[in-house]
Amino acid sequence: MNLKRDITLFILLLLSSTVIAQVKFEAKVSKSKLGINERLRIDFEMNKDGDNFVPPNFEDFTVVGGPNTSVSNYWSNGKRSFTKTYSYFLSPKKQGSFTIKQAKIEIEGEVYKTFPVTIRVTEAIEQPKNPNDPAYIASQNIHLVAEVSKANPYLNEAITIVYKLYVALDTGVSGWRDKETPRFNDFWNQNIEVKAFNPQNAKYNGEDYRYVVLKKYVLYPQKTGPLKLEPYVLDLTVEVPTSRYNIFGDRIVKKVPQTITAGKRTINVKALPENGKPADFNGAVGDFSFNVTTSKLSLDAGESLQAKVEVSGEGNLKLFELPKLSLPSSLEVYEPEHSENVRTNLSGMQGKISDTYTIVPQYKGKYPLPEISFSYFDTKSKSYKRLSSDEIILDVINGPSSASPSADSEESSVVKQAVTSNSNTFAFIKTNANWIAKNKKQFFKSTFFWSLLLIPFLFIPIAIFIRRNQERRNADVIGNKRRKADRLAKKYLSEAKKALGKKEAFYVALEKAFHNYLKAKLHIETSDFNKEKIKDLLKERQVEAPVITDFISILENCELARYTPITQVTMKNDYEKSVTTIGAIDKQIR
Amino acid sequence: MKGVLILFLCCFSIFNTAQNAALFEQANALYNQGKYAEAISKYETILSSKEHSAALYFNLGNAHYKLNNIAPSIFYFEKAKLLSPNDKEIQNNLSFAQNMTVDAIDKVPDVGFSKLFSNLVNRFSADMWSKISIGGVLLFVLLFLLYHFANATAQKRIAFVISILSITVALFSLVMAFQKNGLEEKNNPAIVFAQESRIQADPNKTSEELFRLHEGTKVQILEAYNDWYKIEIADKTIGWILKEEIKLLNEFY
After folding, report:
1. Which regions in chain B score pLDDT beneath 50?
2. What is the reported pLDDT for A403?
3. Of A99, A283, A414, B203, which residue is least crowded by CB atoms under 10 Å?
4. A139 within 8 A of A95, measured Cβ to Cβ
5. How does residue A409 score in pLDDT terms, banded at 50, 70 and 90?
């Protein structure tokens, strides 16, 4: 029992001695859990003065303020209490759990250390607001709002953005200044001037507010995809009522500078559908009408006229090109004059744009202005639409004609010809049709052609051959004579044969035949013609005697026959006899 | 039997001609009254027969011109010109029709000798050249024989000189006839009928577009492939065009 009491006493004694000699050195944090946007205060507190204070390195924090040193030293009831504090203000660098390491200090020759402190940094938390802070009030009562008409428009479809400043009923704005005007990259934009700021009443988050429209823009996206709108930044001087009153009982108004921002957002621009996109589409989006007009339809060459290509309606009028008028190349056309009459209001561009072509026809004739088409994307029906102009025919009544008289070559047709007119008018139809067969064969290279070409050459040798033959015969005189006599004898004999029955004619013909025969055979002339001579000659030519006698007898018969009546039978006999005789002489004669 | 057939054919063709002449008269009357579309249908009835004429194509071209049909009017005028190349009226009205076309193409001009040559070759048709050639040959044969058989020296000399001249003419015309025939075979013109036609670099729709031609422009066809023709225009540019967009001039049917 005794031992037990002794131990207890000892412990008590020990304890009391430590209480008296206690030196405190502690780290205290204002909070162990904080948002990343908040600050932390850490105090290193000691109850005895020390030296060589070494703070931990705040690697996960930035030191915003400190170290601040404070010393408090007071007496109460004869007891001194002393505190010395090193304070730091820290701001966390990132979220997470961090440990602030030990700090060291030397007190009375001994080194004391604090415990490490663990701090948890969470995500940003709403700052507790002071409802009486004028800046806070101002930020709560003033709002800048950007209203965008469409968040996902088509390419080139008009959208509007309106900046409205909402002001609570009890707050006032004494002045503003644009710090940064809104910028719209990749948009065609037009500022619509706000001429007067008319405050209007509206609800904002269920509360009554007044608002003014500060700026209005019409935007035409020029690119597809997400496009960023740069914000509008405004510097304001806000009059905030305070809770104090002046001596007249009015609230004292405090002026607070305030910067507000609006309209930083992304617009997602849709591309126009590829499906059904017309070939002549050139980016027009909206609702249009299209027409082509000319100032005159008939005129003289050398006069001018205006052709106007006009698109009117609502849409991105300034952002596309008008279709070109394709004109006959034989017209003189000057560069078109472009004119725009476009108003821009909140719903977009409205009005008309036109190209005016000045045309001077040079030659007489008809000139069609071919129809041209204009395509646009209709945002209402979300489809492409195509408008076509009507074909216009220009009639040039008087003037030179473009026909050239020297147009003979077949390739000349494509080329416009110079003005030299042989006939000044469009010729009337031909009334005389000279019909020809369609499947007319070509003469060239036909067989007929080749034969006509080559056969004449054959005539040369033929003609020469015939001529040669003739000449050879002509050269042979005796042969010729004989042939002639033969021919003649035969001729007279045949004549005699014809005359058979007519006594006189028969014997004359027979005699003539003999004469001719002898002329040819014996080469005797008519003057030598007597029977004795003939006899001698025939004998000389070794003609047999009976044949000669026959011949002579026939000759005598011929003479006699003129004076004596002779019967048909004798005549026939005589003819046959003469034929055989002549044949015999022919055989025997040398 | 054959004789009967020939007789029948003759009768038929005479009947045909008579019918065509009547139609032609009616169509001309309609044209003169300003009823161009009706006139065209009558003329086209004649076209479907086995006969044609430069006058028929000319009148068709005129009627189309009056109706402002650019391509058909140029097409028929060109056809008329093929049948009757030296007709001034056809040339005149063709240039009126060509005023309506849109395309302006610079022609590559023939210069110097080649111009002279082409002018000469194009003076007559191949048939005409061949006829001249035959005439020259006949004259040569006659004069040569005359030279051969003549007795007087002066006669011989003149005959010889002229015969040599005529054989030269004959040979020259023969060469020209071949040349012209070659040109005619190569010449395959067509008229663009589509209002606007894209000329592609290759015979397919996906290839690069080279240029555009408009209604009424005359092109030369070089070759055909599937649905496409390879064409050449007056400035010697070459490209491919869809067959349906042009109409051949050399096809008479």
Report:
1. 1, 9-12
2. 55
3. A99
4. no
5. very low
pLDDT band at A488 (very low <50, low <70, confident <90, very high): low
Residues 143-172 in B contacting A (C-alpha not used; CB under 8 Å): 144-145, 148-149
What chain B residue is nearest to A363 in terms of C-alpha separation?
B99
Q: What tens digit of pLDDT does each residue of A200-220 get?
A: 888 887 888 888 888 888 888
ipTM of the complex: 0.71
Contacts 24+ apart (CB under 8 A), A571-578: A571/A500, A571/A501, A571/A503, A571/A506, A572/A500, A574/A507, A574/A510, A575/A493, A575/A496, A575/A497, A575/A500, A575/A506, A575/A510, A577/A550, A578/A493, A578/A496, A578/A510, A578/A513, A578/A514, A578/A554
Tell whether B247 lies on the interface with A, counting CB pairs under 8 A: no
CA distances to A126, A301, A400, B92, B216 from A360, rounded to whole Å, are 77, 7, 13, 22, 22
One CATH from 2.60.40.10, 3.30.70.20, 1.10.10.60, 3.20.20.70 for A22-122: 2.60.40.10
Mean confidence (pLDDT) of chain A: 80
Q: What's domain A287-396's architecture? A: Sandwich (2.60)
Say yes or no: domain B2-98 is CATH 2.20.25.110: no
A22-122 and A287-396 have identical folds: yes
Rg (CA), chain B: 24
Which top CATH class is A478-588? mainly alpha
Q: For chain B, what are the domain ranges?
A: 2-98, 112-186, 189-248
Q: For an interface test with A, which of B47, B79, B92, B252 has the most A Cβ atoms less than 10 Å from its Cβ?
A: B92
Residues 12-71 of chain B with CB under 8 A from chain A are 17, 20-21, 24, 28, 31-32, 50-56, 58-59, 62-63, 65, 68, 70
Is pLDDT larger for residue A512 or for residue A166? A166
CATH architecture classification, B189-248: Roll (2.30)
**Which of B31, B93, B101 is opposite residue A426, by nearest beta carbon?**
B93
Residues A41-53: tens digit of each pLDDT:
888 888 878 788 8
What are the domain boundaries of chain A?
22-122, 134-269, 287-396, 478-588
